[in-house]
């Protein structure tokens, strides 16, 4: 577990290579964990992979456990009602950096091109989203392991990867709004992605 976290988003698939699974949210109160949300989720087009050895560019979703980012974001000027985390509206200046420098795997505001993702281009997927924390501050960062592993809305019809993603976790837009109302910065939320297969380092039960 992440020290000090009393809220965790747990994302599981049956085994490595799984392309779909379940996202659940648990809160800890009085020493007891309670599930407050459960929903189907889609993963990267090539499925779950060991996050400790993942290499960028293979359309997979990494396993591991991390403290999530400190804000949520979206294509709207303001957050849905009830959102607890700080909200950042995406604009034409919003990028997620893959630059080989100190901005790697962070949000960057820039009027010029930044190597990485131009967030405004993903109007459907990033209607609402946030960073899982994979390979980004304040967690361990390794250049080349990949950037922009988000939880975001389902892929649009006609997506070249079908319903699957480039490595993110996709859920229904209405559930994203519910999730925004649950994620609480006072609980220091964390995110864990793993397999349901016990006895392996990528098992959700090993964290």
Structure write-up:
The protein is mainly beta. The protein contains 1 helix and 15 strands; from the N terminus they run ββββββββββββββαβ. The chain has one helix at residues 173-182; strands at residues 7-13, 20-29, 32-42, 48-49, 61-62, 64-67, 72-74, 87-89, 94-97, 107-109, 116-118, 128-131, 150-153, 169-171, 190-195. It is globular, with a radius of gyration of 16 Å. 41% of the residues are buried. The model has no long low-confidence stretch (mean pLDDT 96).
Major β-sheet profile:
5 strands, mixed
Helix tally equals: 1
Helix content, binned percent: under 10%
Uncertain stretches:
none
Number of strands: 15
For the structure shown, list the relevant keywords:
globular; 207 residues; 1 helix; 15 strands; mainly beta; five-stranded mixed β-sheet; L,D-transpeptidase catalytic domain-like
């Amino acid at each position: 577990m992440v020290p000090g976290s009393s809220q965790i988003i747990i994302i599981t698939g049956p085994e490595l290579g799984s392309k779909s699974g379940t996202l659940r949210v648990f809160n800890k109160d009085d020493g007891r964990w309670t599930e407050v949300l459960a929903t189907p989720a889609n993963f990267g087009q090539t499925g779950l992979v060991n996050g400790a050895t993942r290499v960028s560019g293979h359309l997979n979703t990494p396993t591991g456990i991390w403290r999530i980012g400190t804000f949520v974001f979206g294509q709207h000027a303001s957050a849905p009602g009830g959102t607890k985390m700080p909200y950042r509206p995406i604009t034409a200046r919003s990028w997620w950096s893959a630059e080989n420098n100190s901005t790697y795997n962070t949000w960057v505001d820039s009027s010029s091109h930044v190597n990485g993702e131009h967030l405004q281009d993903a109007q459907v997927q990033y209607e609402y989203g946030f960073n899982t924390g994979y390979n980004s501050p304040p967690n361990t960062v390794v250049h080349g392991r990949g950037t922009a592993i988000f939880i975001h809305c389902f892929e649009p019809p006609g997506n070249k990867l079908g319903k699957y993603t480039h490595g993110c976790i996709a859920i229904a837009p209405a559930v994203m709004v519910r999730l925004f109302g649950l994620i609480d910065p006072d609980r220091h939320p964390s995110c864990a992605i793993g397999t349901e297969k016990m006895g392996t380092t990528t098992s959700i039960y090993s964290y």
